[in-house]
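pls design
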């Protein structure tokens, strides 16, 4: 839906027009939701009962989770998983709400995954007032985001297990992706927690005690996710350092092997170069056994060099 108004009053919730939503004054509440920023749809959330501060917060281009009180109403911004694939850097979609007794105005610039679940809860009769609506969004967003955060930790556990295989180049890309995902989530998960904790402390008459309980529970879940994301980020940094050390160790071992080979062939190159000069006077140059004698001497020299490396323990990994 691009713009919709849902009325919860006598009987099950039903969709109403803008005029019916504006004229309704109870006994239930009206939820006017917009998931686009076109001018006709914006008219649905603007009105005489919305302060300028709240209206600006609803249509702001860039937002972060927050909760601010204006008299008996609250500006509440939360971030949650999007419906479908997201091709932007922001992994989470913002929902902005202006909540007061009898009416809720909300806006999302992209479809929010939790919206469908909240509508189903309203149809089931579990959402009957603005406090229930806010608590439902908090509960659904935290429930949908929790397994995604847990999946990052599980994937990082697999990377730590694969570290023993020393497949450095594949692990480096996987760990970098996990760390980027954790940073993107951490950017909004902690503010979500702070916004819900602030809301739970307010003494609004439209916020029942059970709503506060659900909001505090969602805030606690966000707090746990924030701690998990911080742990994932720190573990990713530690794994990256270990991979860097392993790569440096691997380069050192290869350099040592190259140096050993070069050191062995250095005296052999000198011997063959000395005996290969086109000058008179080279001993035994006309003897038939001279070639094999030089080969045997080179083998002895190579063995002596290898023995010296072994004695110095330079051949150990």
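designed seq:
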């Amino acid at each position: 839906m691009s713009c919709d108004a849902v009325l919860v009053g006598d009987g099950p919730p039903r969709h109403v027009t803008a005029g019916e939503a504006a004229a309704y004054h109870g006994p239930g509440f009206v939820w006017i939701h917009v998931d686009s920023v076109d001018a006709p749809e914006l008219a649905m959330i603007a009105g005489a009962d919305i302060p300028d501060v709240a209206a600006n917060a609803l249509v702001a281009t860039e937002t972060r989770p927050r909760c601010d009180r204006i008299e008996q109403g609250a500006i509440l911004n939360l971030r949650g998983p999007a419906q479908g694939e997201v091709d932007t850097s922001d992994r989470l979609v913002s929902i902005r709400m202006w909540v007061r007794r009898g009416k809720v105005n909300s806006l999302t610039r992209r479809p929010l995954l939790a919206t469908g679940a909240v509508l189903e809860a309203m149809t089931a009769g579990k959402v009957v007032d603005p406090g229930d609506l806010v608590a439902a969004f908090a509960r659904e967003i935290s429930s949908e985001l929790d397994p995604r955060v847990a999946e990052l930790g599980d994937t990082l556990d697999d990377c730590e297990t694969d570290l023993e295989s020393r497949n450095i180049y594949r692990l480096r890309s996987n760990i970098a992706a996990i760390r980027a995902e954790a940073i993107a989530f951490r950017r909004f998960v902690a503010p979500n927690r702070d916004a819900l904790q602030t809301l739970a402390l307010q003494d609004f008459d439209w916020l029942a005690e059970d709503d506060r309980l659900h909001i505090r529970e969602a805030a606690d879940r966000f707090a746990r996710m924030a701690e998990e994301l911080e742990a994932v980020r720190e573990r990713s940094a530690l794994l990256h350092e270990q991979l860097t050390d392993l790569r440096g160790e691997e380069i050192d071992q290869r350099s040592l092997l190259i140096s050993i080979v070069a050191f062995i062939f250095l005296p052999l190159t000198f011997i063959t170069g000395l005996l290969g000069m086109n000058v008179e006077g080279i001993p035994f140059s006309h003897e038939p056994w001279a070639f094999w004698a030089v080969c045997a001497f080179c083998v002895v020299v190579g063995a002596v060099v290898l023995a010296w490396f072994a004695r110095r323990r330079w051949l150990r990994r």
